[in-house]
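RECORD TYPE: inverse folding
INPUT: structure tokens
STRUCTURE:
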């Protein structure tokens, strides 16, 4: 072998050895750069998560802890947690002395609110459960709809909320307006939303949504406000700016997680391949998604019916009938004559009958005639506050609308 070939071979061995060493060296982070550093452990630390089927002892060993130390540390958990039942994916922070890299502290992040902190004291380890402090403030967020409520809030709240919190805010807001607006199909490009809410943040900069205090949803140049008001009995409810409850006799949509695929009107039937009147609304959803009744009523049919597949029909007090088709199945107690309450889970999304894939076909019949659910379920405002509660609400409402007018960001 030539000298050049020898040098090349040696270089390959060195590079391969370095890569192998880097692969198996513990991934140690600099102080203050990971969430645990903000929890008060300000020396060197390594962030990790418990692997599927991995023991806590194995993880600690990977992070530089000798077997005897790991056993003593785990022993300190006795009575606090069973180390054999620690779930995979739980974050673990290992901390140690900056001179010899010997682990001296371990933090097991049990939840967003609690951690178990293990500390070495000589040759002994002690464990104590700690509560992670959360700081609460109040924010104003604004957004413009480009396609969905998600998009509007994603853009408006991105500087202030983590991704999970942004999704949570969207669904909280959809729940508040679910009696007046079907967020999956009633919003149009250019509509806007503004919301005042409480935000809690922990030292790891994880956010969660607290109470929504007020909101405004502008559609077609008109805004529907939602103002949180606490009754004398302590029950909280949302009212519009005139003091009328947002609650109505019917929910606007039969799915709580909703994504519309077609609307009332003429369309090409996906199975028959012909154009015909589509007497309802289809909601695309995964098979098994719970279907809820839009209002109080009594079941008048639950079974198989031609192209509808498994179908459920419910008669409501005002003579309306709601129909839910292509169902995978029904809740066990559902049968003819069974009373149901608004929002109750009654069935599950499927693809029975003339359906190309899982979705819910939803209809509203008025005096036996199929009507566009968008129009049929448009309800007048709910019950209005009166007397002393109305006076007190007016004060709350003025304050809420004033805060809604403020720019996006934390309130000072």
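DESIGNED SEQUENCE:
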């Amino acid at each position: 072998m030539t000298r050049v070939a020898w040098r090349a071979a040696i270089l390959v061995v060195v590079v391969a050895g370095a890569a192998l060493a880097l692969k198996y060296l513990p991934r140690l982070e600099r102080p203050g750069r990971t969430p645990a550093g903000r929890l008060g452990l300000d020396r060197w630390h390594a962030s990790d998560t418990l692997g599927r089927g991995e023991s806590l002892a194995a993880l600690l060993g990977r992070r530089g802890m000798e077997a005897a130390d790991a056993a003593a540390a785990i022993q300190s958990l006795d009575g606090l947690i069973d180390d054999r039942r620690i779930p995979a994916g739980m974050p673990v922070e290992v901390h140690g002395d900056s001179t010899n890299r010997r682990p001296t502290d371990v933090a097991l992040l049990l939840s967003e609110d609690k951690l178990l902190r293990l500390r070495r004291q000589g040759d002994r380890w002690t464990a104590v459960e700690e509560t992670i402090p959360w700081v609460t403030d109040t924010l104003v967020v604004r957004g413009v709809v480009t396609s969905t409520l998600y998009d509007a809030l994603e853009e408006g709240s991105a500087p202030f909320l983590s991704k999970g919190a942004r999704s949570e805010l969207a669904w909280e807001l959809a729940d508040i307006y679910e009696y007046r607006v079907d967020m999956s199909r009633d919003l149009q490009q250019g509509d806007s939303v503004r919301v005042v809410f409480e935000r809690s943040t922990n030292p790891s900069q994880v956010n969660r949504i607290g109470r929504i205090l007020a909101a405004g949803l502008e559609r077609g140049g008109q805004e529907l406000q939602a103002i949180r008001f606490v009754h004398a009995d302590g029950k909280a409810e949302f009212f519009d700016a005139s003091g009328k409850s947002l609650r109505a006799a019917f929910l606007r949509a039969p799915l709580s997680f909703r994504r519309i695929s077609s609307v009332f009107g003429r369309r090409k039937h996906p199975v028959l391949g012909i154009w015909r009147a589509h007497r309802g609304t289809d909601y695309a959803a995964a098979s098994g998604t719970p279907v809820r009744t839009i209002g109080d009523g009594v079941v008048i049919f639950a079974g198989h019916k031609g192209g509808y597949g498994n179908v459920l029909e419910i008669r409501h007090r005002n003579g309306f009938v709601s129909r839910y088709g292509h169902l995978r199945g029904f809740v066990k107690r559902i049968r003819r004559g069974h009373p149901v309450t608004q929002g109750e889970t009654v069935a599950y999304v499927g693809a029975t009958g003339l359906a190309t894939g899982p979705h819910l076909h939803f209809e509203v019949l008025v005096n036996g005639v199929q009507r566009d659910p968008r129009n049929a379920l448009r309800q007048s405002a709910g019950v209005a506050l009166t007397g002393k509660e109305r006076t007190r609400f007016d004060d709350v409402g003025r304050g809420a609308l004033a805060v809604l007018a403020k720019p996006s960001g934390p309130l000072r």
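NOTES: The chain has three domains: 25-131, 135-248+403-410, 260-376.
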